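Troubleshooting log. The previous structure file for this entry was overwritten by mistake, so regenerating from the original sequence record. Sequence copied from the archived sheet and checked twice against the printout by T.R.
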Amino acid sequence: MSKEAMFNYDHYEPGNSYGTRDFSVDEATIAKWRSVYPNDDDPAMMPGGMLAMIVIDAVLTLNSPRPPGGVHGGQTFDIQRMPRIGEKLRTEVWCLDKEIKKDRKWVRIRSETWVAGSDELLFTGIMTTLVAQ
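Regenerated output below.
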């Protein structure tokens, strides 16, 4: 694939939505997570560490193909409530802003995650990424 076809820094436009990605908080996914993190064992709620995984999955899926070598710089969340096991989620991602600092191309992605098919907002997030060139 040519470099021009890659989802690089130039593709990000502040305010642009890049779509939505669904995620099922199903027992099989939770079991895989708990096999790595056995102390995340609340039987009703999704483990908190999975918030980042849901958003990163959405960003990587919706903003691809990407050049190799990007760096996850940080992530913050504002949580209304944690997802329950069995819920289906829908995450929308868009470019919040972007800037070049010391020849490095940084992008901040905003996300909102809802219970799919409802107006119940579960959490929002901001992810900072150093985009590969």
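The radius of gyration is 16 Å. Archived copy saved in two places this time.
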